[in-house]
């Protein structure tokens, strides 16, 4: 067994003793200062823990522990173990929220935090109220998104104080959506009206003019068809009525002119084929085809099948076939609408668009 010089052992003990006093006193002072200066949160329990650790490190206490626990070698074990145990106990106490968190300082800070949160919540609710009052599609959707935040979601779901605001935001969003659809439809009506006003009512000299007229009137009728669900809105109803009046005026003037123009254009085109085409009758609603080929019924049937879709869209009422002027003739009756009737064509089928009731 090795021998340790008494002088060295004594000197080392003196150094440890001095350091223990210094560390112990510092820990006690720091702990007490922390507990007194900041009585909120976990500071008191940490301060007390540090003070306790400092007390255990003091030489008299260390000596007592050494005698009780028989820790004679090495000499630094008792103070280190004492400090670690005390500090760990202090940290555990702060973590589980021992009585340090119940002091008047903690209550004051908690009350201050609650007041700040209540003020912030009130500001956010006021902002949501403003978005709902604004009443646009964007603002109401924004209000609903804010109410879906985790801070408000539970209150709304459980029927709390924010539930009425959520219900108003939902209703406002639906109203704004409908209003947006109505406004969009009115914009379509306003865009269509100038196109109808531009329909040519004179006698056309080319088929292109006829086709443009027919396409414009057909498209306008489809726009009116789409307004059935908006007819209860006064502004939409007025815009629909204005477009309808304009269409009727244009159709009454344009269809007879288109039929007369079509007969003249086609008559000139088939002159070399020894065919004559004339348009006659009230409102130019009968078209006559005169050619030697129409002596055969087979040719009449094939020709009728070819021209019927175009003639129907121009609202001819009768087609008549002769193999020479004044000969016996064959005719077909076309079930077409009156010139003032508004509707659109899908193939050879006409769908009327009546005025809303």
Describe this structure in words.
Helices cover 66% and strands 8% of the residues. The chain is of the alpha+beta class and 357 residues long. The radius of gyration is 49 Å and the shape is rod-shaped. Strand 3 and strand 4 (329-333) form a beta hairpin.
Number of strands: 6
Which structural category do the helix and sheet elements fall into?
A: alpha+beta
The oligomeric state of the chains shown is single chain
In the predicted model, the low-confidence regions spanning at least 5 consecutive residues are 96-103
Sheet with most strands: strand arrangement: 1-2-3-4
Strand content: 5-15%
The number of helical runs is 11
Based on CA atoms alone, the radius of gyration comes out at 49 Å
Mean pLDDT: 82
The SSE order reads: HHHHHHHHHHEEHEEEE
Helix percent reads 55-70%
Q: What is the end-to-end distance?
A: 119 Å
Largest sheet: 4 strands, mixed
Overall 3D form: rod-shaped
């Amino acid at each position: 067994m090795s021998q340790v010089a008494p002088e060295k052992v004594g000197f080392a003990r003196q150094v440890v003793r001095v350091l223990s006093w210094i560390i112990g006193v510092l820990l006690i002072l720091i702990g007490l200062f922390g507990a007194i200066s900041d009585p909120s949160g976990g500071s008191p329990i940490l301060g007390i823990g540090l003070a306790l650790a400092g007390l255990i490190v003091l030489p008299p206490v260390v000596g007592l522990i050494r005698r009780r626990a028989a820790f004679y070698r090495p000499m630094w074990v008792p103070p280190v173990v004492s400090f670690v145990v005390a500090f760990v106990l202090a940290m555990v106490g702060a973590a589980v929220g021992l009585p340090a968190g119940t002091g008047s300082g903690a209550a004051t800070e908690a009350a201050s935090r609650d007041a700040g949160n209540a003020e912030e919540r009130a500001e956010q609710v006021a902002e949501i109220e403003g978005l709902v009052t604004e009443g646009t599609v964007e603002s109401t959707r924004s209000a609903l998104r804010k109410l879906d935040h985790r801070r408000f979601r539970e209150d709304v779901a459980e029927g709390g104080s924010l539930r009425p605001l959520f219900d108003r935001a939902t209703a406002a969003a639906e109203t704004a959506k409908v209003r947006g659809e109505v406004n969009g439809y009115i914009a379509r009506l306003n865009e269509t009206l100038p196109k109808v006003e531009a329909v040519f009512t004179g006698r056309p000299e080319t088929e292109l003019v006829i086709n443009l007229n027919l396409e414009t009137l057909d498209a306008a009728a489809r726009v009116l068809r789409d307004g059935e669900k908006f007819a209860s809105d006064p502004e939409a109803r007025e815009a629909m009525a204005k477009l309808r009046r304009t269409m009727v005026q244009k159709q009454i003037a344009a269809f007879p002119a288109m039929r007369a123009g079509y007969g003249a254009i086609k008559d000139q085109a088939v002159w070399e084929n020894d065919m004559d085409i004339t348009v006659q009758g009230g409102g130019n609603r009968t078209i006559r085809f005169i050619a030697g080929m129409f002596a055969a019924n087979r040719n009449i049937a094939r020709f009728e099948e070819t021209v019927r879709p175009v003639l129907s869209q121009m609202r001819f009422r009768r087609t008549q076939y002769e193999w020479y002027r004044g000969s016996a003739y064959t005719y077909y009756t076309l079930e077409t609408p009156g010139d003032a009737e508004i509707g659109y064509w899908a193939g050879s089928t006409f769908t009327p668009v009546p005025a809303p009731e």
